[in-house]
Amino acid sequence: METEDSINSINYIIATSMQLSKIGGGVAVNLSKLRGRGASIKKIDSTASGVLPVLKILENVFDYADQLGMRRGSGVAYLNIFHFDLIDFIDCKKINADEKSRIQTLSIGLIIPDKFLQLATENKNFFIFEPNTIYQKYKVLLSDLNMNEWYDKLAADKDILKKELSARNVLTRIAQIQFESGYPYVIYIDNANKQHPLRGLGTIKMSNLCTEIFQLQESSTIGDYGDEDQIRYDVSCNLASLNLVNLLEEKDLEKVIDISMRALTAVSDLTSIKNAPSIRKANESFRSVGLGVLNFTGVLLKNNLAYDDPEVLEFADSLFSAINYYSLLASSNIAKEKNKKFHNFELSDYANGSYFDQYLNNSFEPKSEKVKELLKNIKVPSPEDWAKLKEKVQQDGLYNAYRLAIAPTQSISYLQSATASIQPIISPIETRLYGNSMTYFPMPFLTKENEHLYKSAYQIDQRKLIDVSATIQKHIDQGISTILYVTNNSTTRDLVKLYLYAHHKGLKSLYYVRTKNLQPNECLMCQA
User: Is the pTM of this model over 0.90?
Assistant: First the structure.
């Protein structure tokens, strides 16, 4: 959800967050439109409190609105990196932060436009802007601005309240705080919008609790008591994940994905959250779902491949092109059966056909003998198949505006004796603490003969991990929860290089940064 700069809107976001948290929903809130600390209110200078008090309220909301005491509510707050309260926002996760400003249980994430990364790469200073002064002069809001077009104009405008900072120092500060806390998440918002098939309908402004959901959004205008509210679109999504080991053993990928898409669509059709009207409106208009995967590394290990072997990228490219194809086919079949397309389908890249260009101009069919053997039970579509699908989608439409998203899937992976999401393993035998008991989860297919393949995520070149995510991202219309794994041997400079590399490779987001203190000559297999 996105809050506007008014008490009415803040109240709406708080109340809706409580309603969603009560029923187990993970909630994300974009605070980028709120005026900064020290801004004027009703022409009285230095009266605004900024975003930090709202963060505190949201943290208390999710602590309070749990699921019958069984599980604490979960939420994340996002802020644009050009916002006036940037430093207060990222410093709230510092371990030594003052208790009045420290945020302990609420997650935080930064929305980073390309312009900031350009300035950081050029080692230039940059300005952070107070949103209300922008609105007062230009009648536009910070989160609605394309900073590639607006930045220079705002930087030169003496009427806009701003602060000057070093872009590289800010990146280093982010890295330092990620080493301490794992936060903030990073959203490459321009990458998300460049790859957005519904760009003709609207703009992506943020992500969700786990950084894999990317959908268009329009904030609602909440009036005074008795006035009519203008309810627009917030983000709604129902998630499920396919076990890739089981999927590859099936001989009918089309049928499995068709059943999965129909199951998720049924959930969407049956969902009606009356107490969250902007979520309800988005669900009814777009019927968005998020079909993902788990046990990607399990497939590799079962077939004697290490995560960083060269065949892995070819395997991922072929497999996920097929998953994308069959999810589109399923959604188009549903649209035809129901005689209903998602809202404003005709404005999408699916309708004009441009979405299919990469598949018409390139073949993603397996080339190496190893990958052909891995995918022997799967029909990977050819460019000719994609041409026929393009014609069908343009004629029959799609029922689901958004289809694919790869969530982190940690706990549910353990339940299936599988590896999480598309991530590498942490250890050959992973541990989780539940209450007062330690539970051990051996990774699948582990034997003495193949233990050398079980490389920890901390031992893998993180650029290889990013390469896997980037390869898969080409075929995912939404996003991927990508976690980075660093050790005490890593530096903030190393982490900043990974931010830039991930952006360059086209990732839409980075989720947590996990840190491990390695001992000299540590043997992860022995430790497990």
Answer: yes
